[in-house]
Design brief:
Helix 2 runs antiparallel to helix 3 (about 70-90). The protein has helices at about 5-10, 25-50, 70-90, 110-120, and strands spanning about 50-55, 60-65. The protein has about 130 residues and is mostly helical. Helix content is about 50%, strand content about 10%. Strands 1-2 form a two-stranded antiparallel sheet. It starts with a helix and ends in a 16-residue tail after the last helix.
């Protein structure tokens, strides 16, 4: 799938779809979209509303943002599709969506989920549905 197609699908048709399966590329491209949009909105928030610090020195560049209304509203709108695509990704590797609760065990839970999300698609149908199309 193309990047734009994945984003459009996750934000429209599959906005709150917690059933079925999502490919590894669908999940990671949506995560990439989320991170890039947060960076851009964070910069815009800092420039428009203040609270942005950037600089360079000693061979390092740094960027600090205190968050802002644009970033907050975007994150609020995207939290449900982000959870939905995460659950569908877990379904794709034949695991229940309840595994997302490992996020409450930092950092061990995040490491385990990261490894899960890197896993290959289980070929053929599983208890969560047919194998997703590429």
């Amino acid at each position: 799938m193309r990047f734009q197609t994945i984003i459009r699908t996750c934000l429209t048709r599959d906005y709150a779809n917690f059933s079925g399966r999502a490919t590894r590329s669908e999940f990671w491209l949506f995560i990439l979209f989320f991170l890039l949009a947060n960076i851009v909105l964070s910069l815009l928030d800092g420039l428009i509303f203040g609270g942005l610090s950037m600089g360079a020195g000693n061979g390092r560049a740094w960027f600090i943002s205190n968050g802002g209304p644009l970033e907050f509203l975007f994150s609020l709108c995207v939290v449900i599709p982000l959870l939905a695509v995460s659950v569908r990704r877990l379904h794709d590797i034949d695991r229940s969506g309840w595994w997302l609760l490992l996020h409450v065990l930092p950092p061990v839970g995040q490491i385990i989920l990261f490894v899960f999300m890197l896993g290959r698609t289980r070929p053929g149908p599983n208890r969560f549905g047919p194998e997703p199309q590429q």
